[in-house]
Amino acid sequence: MERHYDLVIIGAGPAGMTAAIYASRAGLKTAMLEMGAPGGKLIKTYEISNWPGIKGTNGAKLANDMFEHSTHFGAEYLYGNVVKVEDGEEYKTIICEDGTEYKAKAVIVATGTKERMMNIPGEEENVGRGVSYCAVCDGAFFRNQEIVVIGGGNSALEEALYLSEIASKVYVVIRRDVFRADEIVQKAVEENEKIEVIRKHVPLRVIDDGNRVTGIVLQNVDTKEEMTVETHGIFPYIGLDPATSFLEGLDVLDTYGYMTVDENCETKVKGIYGAGDVIHKNLRQVVTATNDGAIAAQHAFHEIKKI
Ligand code: NDP
Description:
Blueprint: E1 2-10, H1 14-25, E2 30-34, E3 47-48, E4 57-58, H2 59-72, E5 76-79, E6 82-86, E7 92-96, E8 101-109, E9 113-115, H3 135-138, E10 146-150, H4 154-164, E11 169-173, H5 183-191, E12 195-198, E13 201-208, E14 213-220, E15 226-230, E16 233-236, E17 240-242, E18 272-274, H6 286-306
Parallel strand pairs: 1-2, 1-8, 2-5, 8-18, 10-11, 10-16, 11-12
Antiparallel strand pairs: 3-4, 6-7, 7-8, 9-17, 13-14, 14-15
The structure holds NADPH dihydro-nicotinamide-adenine-dinucleotide phosphate.
Enzyme class: oxidoreductase
Keywords: Disulfide bond, FAD, Flavoprotein, NADP, Oxidoreductase, Redox-active center
Family: Belongs to the class-II pyridine nucleotide-disulfide oxidoreductase family.
């Protein structure tokens, strides 16, 4: 099956949905391709407190509002797991896992990032049995229990704060003796009586009883001594990697796999844009993602109308 559009947007997070609003409102025949629920990381975020005009809102609610808005001007929302994008003279071809192909004059890639795994024994086989990368989705399974969060960045500390409202205790494991997160989040963690920080330790292996997680073995980075924390819930938040494997071969990625774009959010392949967390940038936030989506869609609109 082949379908033709002016613009195909891959990924329906804040960047993709904003691009859909701008493009369809400008009159482009637009489709958003998404392999999960619309909203991207927003739906996994408990609270958003830095979206201008709203002091505090729930991530899933904001995602839902954005989704309704993104299809309001006629953009189509389609399921698709994109495995390849090909550049052509007249059209770009977007190929999905099930063989469906879409043709578009321009493509905006807004696929974001995916959670980095710890890559330690016992992790992969215990995903869904105690290892989780989404506190908002799975935190409630561990009500009044002790939970372990791995990492010291904004994600880890913000999720630890969220989990502290559910769990009886939250251990935060960091590999240095300092956090990477913003000061304000660090302060909240340090003042939280339910959170205990285990410094200078790295995760070594996840242990289970064949059914579910029963603990995690940590290693002191200086002494190499091992310790076991008994827990049924482990939440690794150790960073993110860009979801760009389907772009390999197009020469639009940097050495870390992020997309390299210019001030119009366009890559060096004309008509292929990047927007949101997937591009090389300093600040990955909802507000900067929406900014990229608007810029990319507006530029694509002008280029398509020139054609
Ligand atoms: P970060 O890269 O900021 O932090 C990753 C954390 O995990 C660091 O503490 C790092 O340690 C640790 N880590 C990395 N690899 C390992 C490992 N193998 N074993 C143990 N620990 C490890 O990732 P985040 O996901 O927290 O954030 C990504 C981006 O999103 C950042 O730019 C962040 O600021 C932003 N963000 C902003 C938010 C907000 O402003 N509200 C909310 C969430 C994210 P070390 O420090 O030693 O390298």
